[in-house]
Design goal:
alpha/beta, 23 helices, about 25% helix
Length: about 700
Amino acid sequence: MASFGEDKSSDGEGSPAAATVAGGTHLLGFSDEILLHILSHVPSTDLILNVRLVCRKLAALCLDKSLTHTVLLQKDYEASEDKVKRLVKEIGREIQQLNMAGCYWLSGSTIEHVARCRGLVKVNLSGCHLTSLRLSKMLSVLQHLRSLAIDVSPGFDAGQLSSECKATLSRVRELKQTLYTPSYGVVPCCTSLEKLLLYFEILDRTREGAILSGQLMVGQSNVPHYQNLRVFYARLAPGYINQEVVRLYLAVLSDRTPENLHAFLISVPGSFAESGATKNLLDSMARNVALDALQLPKSWLNGSALLQHMKFNNPFYFSFSRCTLSGGHLIQRVINGGKDLRSLASLNLSGCVHCLAPDSLLRKAEDDIDSSILETLVASCCNLQHLNLSAAHHHSSEGPGRHLCQLLARLCHLRSLSLPVCSVADSAPRADRAPAQPAMHAVPRGFGKKVRIGVQSCPNPFSGQAVPQPSSVFWSLLKNVPFLERLELIGSNFSSAMPRNEPAIRNSLPPCSRAQNVGDSEVAAIGQLAFLRHLTLAQLPSILTGSGLVSIGLQCQQLQSLSLANLGMMGKVVYMSALSDMLQHCKRLKDLRLEQPYFSANAQFFQALSQCSTLQRLCLVSRSGTLQPEAVLAFMARCLHVVVCHMFTGESLATCKNLQQSLLRRPNSEFLRGRKHLALVVLLLTCPLICVALRPSEEEAGLSPKPGL
């Protein structure tokens, strides 16, 4: 910690520790406000156990309430059991908000130390090892608790909760429950709930293969009416049993809908048929409440007049994913003919193939949008921060200022944007276009030769071959939304080989013809987004060299999550040289997902990937792909922050098993130091799951592979 000062006995004022150093003022010369802002980015365990010992000034600042009241251990893989225990011992009395979500490597006895933080108001224990008795013991002493997040696993018994625990739960106002077994969990005890978040992850079968029932335990159905409930959210994983259990939750709300309900959101993959109870609930909501946020299963909205009768009050979130919502319905029922919706911050129209087309064109094959509908949407929802138009064909017809990108460029507050690839293509070139204008795809196509990794075959990203052209509508769009943090550009016909939260793999379709007009130059335009953190590119058939990726690596220095799938011609990985160059510059990249058939995960690829020093999670999906076990071992030995490595390739079963055994035979090597929480999966796309997990198991860690875009 020498960067904070070498003199540990100094108070940081008038001492060598605060002296001026070459290149500017010493760090301790900054004001306390600036130092506190800097220290807020230091992990809590490092802050209290290390930085605080540097000098007296830092000792005082590290104990400032702004730093000790909220402790975030979520995905802090350096937080060992010993560090967590010492942290709680040092500042447990000061902590008011504690987030330990996903700390699956911590034992139950370590989690029990949370009980020492008696001033806790908010605690997130999702993904942690909790039994009914341990939870009861902890909550019995947390009398100030108002927000709780837990998992409900098989074996949970609400009858083991003490009266003191139930008293604490009766005061909880916010509850997040992830259900891995049919149960109400602690919901019946939380009689003052204002916010209820439910995540249904119940499997249809047990480990032994027995079929589970969604019938809840006798005595658990006595759920009180929640008249204080303001937010209800339910997200379901695929499986009939999750739908069966959520119906029991909804049946309680259908008897008497809370009058203060402002947000009602249900996220369901696939179809979810209505029942008598859900119809009663929706009718009651339409009569008695005014919503700020709404998300319903597509079958509940398709063909119904529900939106006409639903009342909204300053809405901030709408999701109509995969609904048969036409442009006319969107304007009349949602925007109400151009009603001022400046309060709306998030709008999800993913898979709504007709939402930008007038009713008269629904039966036509043409996918051109009605620019007047989009213009009304943009004008009415001018403060949108999150917009999703993916999984549909949205084509723009000829006309200045009428292109989808040109209209979306008016939404200057956007922070996340998801578009189909075909929607960003320029209109067909006109015959009168000036011949001197540079072509959008000046990269020579060549003859599909294999590109060797390590050989610089891609053009300079700043040369004329891949520079984003100012004449491109996509370039202009990104120029007008400079603060975009998340961008998804996904082919309208894209189907992942390993879909996340999809009931079944859909049939793979060829890319949209207009997607052929989107290539390296458009990808290079993404480099304008200096604040970009999350990027997804999928099904871009006209990627020739991938040179645009290098521009992104050089200029998007905040990039933390990158997902690439099916780039270029199927069967040929032509962008590997550019990807290797890109990875050298991704110093903050934590998550990488790469889906590409016939991908060769060889030594050169893993050597380039080793340049990403902060990488934590890697997922590789490649039908008919290959990998080099020695390269994987060398990569894992160099990148010590990697804790999740999923590889779905076409290698043989013997190769996968041998790789796992090679990892297990290294118990005393540098590879395992600080990596006890590693979960590694190596398998074939066509074979059962083979898993190597170094304490705890991957299943215990909650890291079952769910790759997907």
